[in-house]
TrEMBL record:
Entry GO CC: proteasome activator complex
Gene3D superfamilies xrefs: Proteasome activator pa28, C-terminal domain (1.20.120.180)
Protein name per its UniProtKB record: Proteasome activator PA28 C-terminal domain-containing protein
Record-annotated Proteasome activator PA28 C-terminal domain positions: 124-257
Organism: Bodo saltans (Flagellated protozoan)
InterPro entries hit by this protein: PA28_C (IPR003186), PA28_C_sf (IPR036997), Proteasome_activ_sf (IPR036252)
Signal peptide: none
Organism taxonomic ancestry: Eukaryota, Discoba, Euglenozoa, Kinetoplastea, Metakinetoplastina
């Protein structure tokens, strides 16, 4: 039984690991010291978000009442005669096409073009919400880097498993698991803007096919309204992650620091 017990490593510390751990400790301490201003910054963004959301809700309501609202982006889709005839043939209908004269802006003369239709589409402006999710993404990316540094430091601090430092290993493992789960949560927020644009693009493509669909136009409005809520929740998640990470590290750091000094050789010899 004794022969199966794992022997404590006598390999000398790896200088590269020791240097990396020192750098990570400095970044960890900087993150811990900056928690207060960081959370205040997130809360300021949350307040600004709430104000902007109210403004956007009022703008959308007004735009719904005024058909020619200047707050709407107008785009046009040109449907050629060939496409009209192809669709008509596909559904077994008779194509109704007509010529259209468009005035050339440079010469000031009218030019006869091939028969076509112009369908005007109204896509509600989402500039404000795009700016907000970009702010959110930048903050989440920065926080993810800080949390990565903390998890790397915890990993490099992990001692060899034996009876003497089993408690330390258990504490380190628990803290590491907690912070690592936060990293995944924050990285999901980083990916949120991409998901938003993909979802909105899908609805806009459907509107190109059915430009008169009121249901699709309403879907765009509802999608943005839900996005404002999701962005607000995401800012609150960042605040929660910062506060809990700070609490977990502060409560366990003294024991980890003391244990780290005793098992520094073993810890450094594990990661090459």
């Amino acid at each position: 039984m004794a022969g199966r017990r794992r022997r404590e490593s006598t390999v000398p510390p790896n200088p590269a690991v020791i240097a990396a751990k020192k750098i990570l400790e400095e970044k960890r301490d900087a993150f811990m010291a900056n928690i207060g201003p960081l959370v205040e910054h997130y809360e300021a963004n949350l307040r600004r978000l709430s104000e902007n959301a109210l403004v956007e809700e009022a703008r959308i309501a007004k735009g719904r009442q005024e058909a020619n609202s200047t707050c709407l982006n107008r785009s046009s889709m040109i449907v050629t005669e060939g496409l009209v005839r192809a669709v008509a043939d596909a559904v077994g209908a008779e194509a109704d096409v007509s010529t259209c004269a468009i005035k050339a802006s440079d010469e000031g003369q009218s030019e006869e073009l091939a028969p076509h239709y112009v369908v005007e589409l109204y896509f509600d402006s989402n500039k404000a919400i795009v700016e907000e999710i970009q702010y959110l993404r930048k903050a989440a990316m920065d926080l993810a880097v800080d949390l990565d540094n903390v998890t790397d430091w915890l990993a490099l601090s992990m001692p060899n498993l034996n009876e003497e430092n089993s408690v330390v290993s258990e504490i380190l493992g628990g803290v590491l698991e907690q912070v690592a789960s936060f990293v995944e949560t924050v990285r999901a927020i980083v990916a949120f803007p991409k998901k938003y644009h993909e979802s909105r693009t899908a609805v806009e493509k459907e509107l190109l096919k059915l430009p008169e669909s009121k249901a699709l136009q309403m879907q765009l409005e509802l999608q943005d309204a839900e996005t404002w809520d999701e962005v607000q929740k995401s800012w609150k998640v960042l605040i929660r992650v910062c506060l809990i990470t700070h609490s977990v590290l502060k409560k366990n750091l003294p024991a980890l620091e003391e244990a780290g000094s005793e098992v520094s050789t073993a810890a450094a010899s594990v990661y090459y």
